């Protein structure tokens, strides 16, 4: 439950940053995705380390692992942009929003088994 609530705050930050960077600033969706996801990853790491997993040891190593897991989400979403936005013309905002459940599920499993093990 805590992971879900914290994840929700990261998703909200990620989506808001993406919308601002892509729609308002005109940044390409893949760069906007990398930056917005990094904001969400950082938020989620800090909160999960303190609240969900209660792990404060080896913080740098854990963050690097957590960010590496986050990179899987960035890569997956960027692949979806290539497939759905670039190839099929589907709006990048919809692709970003639609990618989130898949990315979150993948990251939860990887973080639980590797980042905070």
UniProtKB/TrEMBL annotation:
It is a multi-pass membrane protein. The chain crosses the membrane at residues 63-84. It is found in: Membrane. Keywords: Membrane, Transmembrane, Transmembrane helix. Pfam families: GtrA_DPMS_TM. One of its GO terms (cellular component) is plasma membrane. InterPro entries: GtrA_CellWall_Glycosyl, GtrA_DPMS_TM. One of its GO terms (biological process) is polysaccharide biosynthetic process. Residues 2-116 form the GtrA/DPMS transmembrane domain. It comes from the Bacteria. Belongs to the GtrA family. This is GtrA/DPMS transmembrane domain-containing protein.
